[in-house]
Design brief:
Strand order of the largest sheet: 1-2
Order of helices and strands: HHEEEEEE
Low-confidence stretches: 7-11, 15-21, 152-156
Mean pLDDT: 87
Largest sheet: 2 strands, parallel
Structural class: little secondary structure
Strand content: 5-15%
């Protein structure tokens, strides 16, 4: 029953992230700029559920916009400011968000597969998304909560998926990774100091086959984390708690 429940949750998740339209963009960049120019916190630019696919929206300030449920696939939002927004149920597959400010955002039920988030700032955000194959190299992911709100027990079983993602050089200091799927991800030179990889509800962070060369796990909480087949050359585990048996002492330098 538990496995069926989890399967149903993930089925709902995939239906959510794939539910947006496939028609052409409804607005031009100029129209989006005009909406943003007139907006404020009390009267945000209404971009809810808008199809904004393939648009160049780089270097724009969206902090006074409502993007809930918008379709942003393949759009260019490089260096744009989305700080503090609720981006739940948006579709951002293959979106360009390099250098963007996504600090303290809510990103739930979202497809960010193969997205470019290199050098982006996602610090302090809550992220439950499919990010397989995404580029998060050198991104600021400190204090990110990679899990749903545990007050909702069904949604709390969901895992952020980062399979095959590139997190080389990323800052994951103090990140909550207990329900993150990191199979075959690249975390070369990543900073995971004080990261929490423990999950009371299921196995911890799954780093099966991941490249953890020179990654820093100092003071990290590793109970139930999975390192099967991971590359651990040069990885540091100074002061790490509950070091799994699969991590040989020689690797904990």
């Amino acid at each position: 029953m538990h496995g069926l429940r989890k399967a149903n949750i993930w089925l709902a998740f995939y239906l959510i992230v794939g539910a947006n339209s496939i028609q052409a963009a409804e607005l031009t960049r100029t129209q989006v700029e005009q909406l943003l120019a007139k907006a404020d916190k009390q009267h945000p630019a209404d971009l809810r559920r808008k199809d904004l696919t393939d648009l160049d929206l780089s270097n724009l300030d969206f902090r006074n916009a409502d993007l809930w449920g918008a379709d942003l696939r393949r759009s260019n939002l490089n260096n744009s400011n989305l700080q503090g927004l609720t981006l739940d149920v948006t579709v951002m597959t293959r979106i360009k968000l390099s250098g963007a400010n996504l600090a303290n955002t809510s990103i739930f039920g979202v497809s960010l597969m193969h997205a470019d988030l290199s050098n982006a700032d996602m610090s302090g955000s809550r992220v439950v998304a499919i990010m397989d194959g995404a580029n998060l190299s050198n991104a600021n992911l400190s204090n990110v909560q990679w899990a749903a709100d545990m007050k909702n027990q069904s949604m709390g079983l969901m895992r952020a998926s980062l399979k095959g993602a590139n997190l080389s050089g990323a800052n994951l200091h103090n990140a909550q990774l207990g329900r993150a799927m990191l199979k075959h991800a690249k975390l070369v030179n990543a900073n995971l100091q004080n990261a929490d990889m423990y999950s009371a509800e299921m196995d911890g962070a799954d780093m099966t086959g991941a490249d953890l060369t020179n990654a820093n796990f100092s003071e990290a909480k590793l109970h139930d984390a999975i390192f099967a087949g991971a590359i651990l050359q040069g990885a540091r585990f100074d002061g790490a708690k509950n070091l799994p048996d699969s991590v040989k002492p020689a690797s904990a330098q």
